[in-house]
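Final report, closing paragraph on structural work. Over the funding period we assembled a curated collection of sequence-structure pairs, and we close with a single example.
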Amino acid sequence: MELIKIFLIFALIVFFIRLKWNLGLVMIIGALFVGLLFAMSPEMIAKGITNGLLDTTTIQLILALAMIMVLENVLRKTENLQRMVNSLKGLVRDHRIVMALMPAVIGLLPSIGGARFSAPFVEETSKGMNLSPDKKSFINYWFRHPWEFTIPLYPGLILASGITKIPLNSIIIAQIPFSIAVIIGGIFFGLRGIKDDTQTQVEGGVEKHLLPLFLSFLPLIAIFLLVLALKLDVGISMIVVTIMLFLIYRYSFKDVANTIKESISFNNLFIVVGIMIFKGVLEKSGALPALSDSFSASGLPVGIILFILPFIVGILTGITVAFVGVTFPLIYLMLQQSGLSADLMIFAFAGGYTGVLLSPVHVCLILTKEYFDAKWSGIYKQIAIPSLLIIITAVVRLWIR
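Its predicted structure, as stored:
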């Protein structure tokens, strides 16, 4: 019964998305629909909404997203973005690789919605390639996401290790094939066939481009250092770097105010608010634990439950920590009874993360779509087959273990 309710909620969200309603509003409607189907009292719904709004992740995400928009504006207006792209093009003659490299590099830094930061780089690099919005969206979104399987900075990996008691380094090593599958899928289905007519425009040797590349990358390097070395929040780190850029480029108070005003999209921030409200109400409803219990009692083969359960939670929430936190405690108990296997846990992680990549409420996917003004149907045509490659890799890896 819970699975039917979840399906109805998901179908409702997809229906309103296809009507091109504001996604923030759609997610709030979805949250209310969750409350209705799971018989939540008005007080419970209100508490779920409050939890979603006041969640630390919500505040951090809104701050980081707002600062991404401001920082991107500064980098673009000061021509730092252009110098970065030109230097990379000078060092890497195949500009398709440059286009994929930027979201991949930025993706090394865990940040919900970070694809919005890399989107302008992809847009700048793709000039002269005559790419559709759907193709640019795919490249920006897909190449941002190979690392969550293997980079220990991502909290989903740490949580999975903590719940299952499998050493983090063992999980990372075991999941390397998935990161490789994402990269291969991106190259084969995203970059192959793109005609680059801009390569002949680059002049000069490697030495000509190294220093400009380093200088243009300094803001990003500074953010990495603040996050990794000083353990600052991503949003706070971006504030620090942006203030430094304001000072270096001698922005007046009026310039700063105008930059903030023209940079921040309140529509994008409202989308984030809607998603987090939906997540808050969904968690308060008890729907996800009930879904886990239903699968556990269904009598389905363990392998199917291991993949489908995290996949459903992943596609509903679009957040790795959510599918790990909700489903892995149950999966861990199930596997303790039938014989714990690290390979089966890795298989479950692959299922959940595939759901996250395909989720219409995945913040990176939404922001990428909005930036490039792409169509949902076009984006899903681009990501469907590469996502299938992850599943195939998971099945083959489990089969040959």
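The two ends are 35 Å apart (CA to CA). The CA atoms of residues 162 and 168 lie 8 Å apart. We thank the funder for supporting this effort.
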